[in-house]
Specification:
- By secondary structure, the chain is an alpha/beta fold.
- About 25% of the residues lie in helices and about 20% in strands.
- Strand 11 and strand 12 form a beta hairpin.
- The two termini are about 20 Å apart.
Length: about 450
C-alpha cells in the first residue's frame, strides 16, 4: 500500500456496461518429449548443481528441466535505453540484441494500474500483448523448451533491468505442432524471478529454500485482517515495527515465514523507498539474523515492494530494492508486489495467495503461484474478449475494467528465489500456544 490514501482511477466510479463473460478452455498439460542430451553441461562425477552456477552463460550447470532467461540493460545502436536477453535450457538457447522492439517499455508496467491518471487496465493488457508479439525469437525459444519439458519446466527470469517488465504476463501463442496452449507465461509454466544480489556471490540462487517453522510478522493497523490467514499456524504478529525488527534479529524459535502487511513507497532514488515507515537504508542497516539462520520465506504485502531503483545517485552501478535486500539478508525466497495493492480486492487476493502457499507445504512456492494465476485466468474468461474501454454509448465500461484489473492483480505477485523452495508452517496446538499478537 502507498504511504498516502490512494484515489481510484476515474473509471472505478460510475456506471458501465458489463461485458458478457466467455469460457476459457482448460490449460492442458503438454506432452513431454524426450530431452536432448545435456551431459556436456556437467562432468559425470559431479552431482547435479541445480542453479548453483555463478556465471550466466550457456554451459552454466543446470539440472534437466531448468531454464534461465537473463535480461540486462543495454543501449541500442541509436543510443536509446533498452535491454538485451539471453536464455538457455540444455542445448536450446536464444540471444536477442538491443533494438527498436526492446526498449524500456514503461507503458506495460503493472505499476501504472493504480496511479492517478494511470492507464486503463484493458489498455495495459493490450499493450503487453503488443510488447510480447514484438519478441518472436524469445517466443520461439519459450515454446521449444515448453515442448521439451512440459509441466516439468522451471524457468528463472533473471532480470537486472529495473524496467518493471511483466514477464509473467508475456503472451505465448499456441503451437499446434507441439500441442501447446497459448496464454500468459506465468499461467502456462512455473516462473521464478531473480535479481543480482550484491554480496560475494552475485550468481543464481544456490540452495533450495526449505522454509519451516512459525510465522513472524508485522501488520500495520490498516491491515490487521491479514492476521486471520495465520490462525491455523503458530505465529507472532507485531503492530509496531521496532519490536518486530528486534524479533527478526533475536527470535529463538525457528521461523518459516516473515510477513509484512504495511504501506510501501516508491520513487526514482533509493531514499524514496520505504516499507512500514522505515526507509530502505534503515532496513538495510538491520541485522535480521533470523533470516540467515532459518532461511525464512519473506512475503511483502506492500505497494511497489517488488520494484527496483538504479542506485547510481549513491555512487554504485546496482539495482536496489526490497527483494534484493531481504535475499541478501539470507531469506530463502521472497514474494513481492510489482504495483499498488491499495484496494480491498487486491488485499483479498494477497491473503488468498498466502493461504494457498501455506496450505501446500510440499508444493514449491512458484508452482502454487502458477496455479493461482491459471485459476484467475479461468475466472476471467477468454482473453479473446477483453473489454473495450468504452461502450457504444461512449461511457467507460467500469465493470469491464474492474474485471481486467482483477486479472492483472493476480499476475502482480512475483516470487524471487529458487524454483523448488517450499514453505512448511508449524501448526498451532489446540490452545493456540505460541500464537497471538504483540502491541
Amino acid at each position: 500500500m502507498g504511504g498516502e490514501p490512494q484515489r481510484g482511477p476515474r473509471w472505478l466510479t460510475g456506471a458501465g456496461t458489463v461485458v458478457r463473460r466467455a469460457s476459457l478452455p482448460g490449460l492442458k498439460a503438454v506432452t513431454r518429449r524426450p530431452a536432448a542430451p545435456v551431459s556436456h553441461l556437467r562432468r559425470a562425477q559431479e552431482p547435479p548443481a541445480g542453479l548453483g552456477g555463478t556465471d550466466a552463460h550457456p554451459g552454466a550447470r543446470l539440472e534437466d528441466g531448468f531454464a534461465v532467461l537473463h535480461v540486462l540493460r543495454s543501449e541500442g545502436a541509436d543510443g536509446r535505453q533498452g535491454y538485451r536477453l539471453h536464455g538457455w535450457c540444455g542445448d536450446l538457447s536464444v540471444t536477442c540484441a538491443p533494438g527498436p522492439t526492446r526498449l524500456t517499455a514503461p507503458a506495460v508496467s503493472l505499476a501504472n494500474l493504480r496511479q492517478d491518471g494511470g492507464e486503463y487496465p484493458s489498455e495495459v493488457l493490450r499493450g503487453i500483448r503488443l510488447w510480447s508479439g514484438n519478441q518472436p525469437e524469445l517466443t520461439g525459444w519459450l515454446n521449444r523448451i515448453r515442448a521439451r519439458h512440459g509441466d516439468c519446466l522451471r524457468l528463472v527470469v533473471w532480470d537486472d533491468t529495473g524496467y518493471d517488465l511483466p514477464w509473467e504476463l508475456f503472451w505465448l501463442p499456441g503451437d499446434a505442432r507441439y500441442k501447446l496452449e497459448g496464454g500468459p507465461l506465468g499461467a502456462l509454466t512455473v516462473v521464478s524471478r531473480w535479481t543480482t544480489v550484491h554480496d560475494a556471490g552475485q550468481g543464481l540462487p544456490r540452495e533450495t529454500g526449505d522454509c519451516q517453522g512459525r510465522v513472524l510478522g508485522y501488520l500495520h493497523q490498516d491491515m490487521t485482517d491479514d492476521g486471520r490467514v495465520f490462525a491455523p499456524y503458530t505465529h507472532r504478529l507485531h503492530r509496531r515495527m521496532t519490536p518486530f525488527l528486534r524479533d527478526l534479529d533475536t527470535h529463538t524459535d525457528r521461523t518459516g515465514l516473515v510477513y509484512l502487511g504495511c504501506h510501501g513507497t516508491y520513487g526514482d532514488t533509493v531514499p524514496r523507498l520505504s516499507l512500514g515507515g522505515r526507509t530502505w537504508a534503515e532496513l538495510n542497516g538491520e541485522p535480521m539474523a533470523v533470516l540467515r539462520r532459518d532461511r525464512s520465506l519473506v512475503c511483502l504485502n506492500a505497494c511497489d515492494s517488488g520494484r527496483f531503483v538504479d542506485n547510481r545517485a549513491q555512487g554504485e552501478e546496482a539495482l536496489r530494492g526490497f527483494a534484493e535486500l531481504f535475499l541478501r539478508k539470507g531469506a530463502g525466497g521472497c514474494i513481492v508486489t510489482s504495483g499498488k495493492v491499495g484496494d480491498q480486492e487486491a488485499r483479498r487476493l494477497v491473503r488468498r495467495l498466502v493461504r494457498e502457499v501455506a496450505e501446500h507445504p510440499h508444493r514449491p512456492v512458484p508452482q502454487t503461484l502458477r496455479a493461482f494465476r491459471a485459476r484467475a485466468l479461468e475466472e476471467f474468461g477468454s482473453l479473446a474478449a477483453v473489454p473495450s474501454v468504452r461502450d457504444d454509448d461512449g461511457q467507460v465500461d467500469s465493470a469491464g475494467q474492474k474485471r481486467v484489473l482483477r486479472l492483472l492483480y493476480a499476475f502482480m505477485f512475483h516470487y524471487y528465489g529458487h524454483p523448488q523452495t517450499t514453505l512448511r508452517l508449524t501448526a498451532a496446538d489446540g490452545r493456540g500456544a505460541g500464537g497471538g499478537s504483540e502491541r
